[in-house]
Task: structure prediction
Amino acid sequence: MPAKTPRTSKSPVRLWRWRRNALRRHSDVVEAWIVLGIWLLVAVGGAVAGLVAARTVDSDFATRRARAHPVAAVVTDVTPAAPPATASGRDDGRARVTVRWTDADGSVHRATARLLPGAPVGTRLTVWTDDADRVVPQPLGRTEAALQADLTGILVGPLAAGAIWAGGRLLRAALVRRRLTEWDEEWKRVGPEWRNLSGGRG
Result:
C-alpha cells in the first residue's frame, strides 16, 4: 500500500499584523488599527447617518404639517394655463385661480393657487395656508412622511458608509506607499551587506 504524501499547508497566516513577529513594523500595527477603525466607522457611521437623515426629514415634514392649516375657500377667478414658452418648457396643465376664504374672526383673505382644470368660479375647495395666510402645498400625511423619511435614511446610510470606506482606502493606500518607501530605504542600507554575505566574493 503506497505511503500517503504529507499535505503541505498553504493557508495564509491570519491576523499577522496583530501578532509579534520579526517582520512586523510599527506601520503594520498602525494599518491594522486603521482597518479595524474603518470597518467600525462604516458599520456605525453608516447606520447613524441613516438614522439622523431619516429623523431630520421626518422632523421637517412634521414642522410643515404644524405650520399648514386647511381652510375652506371658494374660487373667485380662473386664469387658464398658458402654453410653454419654448419646446423644452414644462407645464403641468394646472390653471391659476384666485381663491377667497374667511377666518374665524371674520377676516377675508384672497390668494392665488394652481389647480387642475375643471374648477370653475364658485367651486368650493380646501386649501392649505401658513401662519402668514399664504397658500402652501398640502403637507404629507404622517404615513407618507414616515415612508419618505425611511427611504431617505436607507439611501443616506450606504452613501455615508461608502464615503467612509473610500476615505479609509485612500488612507490605507498612503500607508502602503509609506511602507514600501521604508522598505526601499532599508534595502539600500542592508542590501550591499546582504550581497557580500551571500556570495559577493571577487
The mean pLDDT is 76. Helices lie at 26-67, 142-198. The beta strands are 69-79, 95-102, 108-115, 124-129, 135-136.
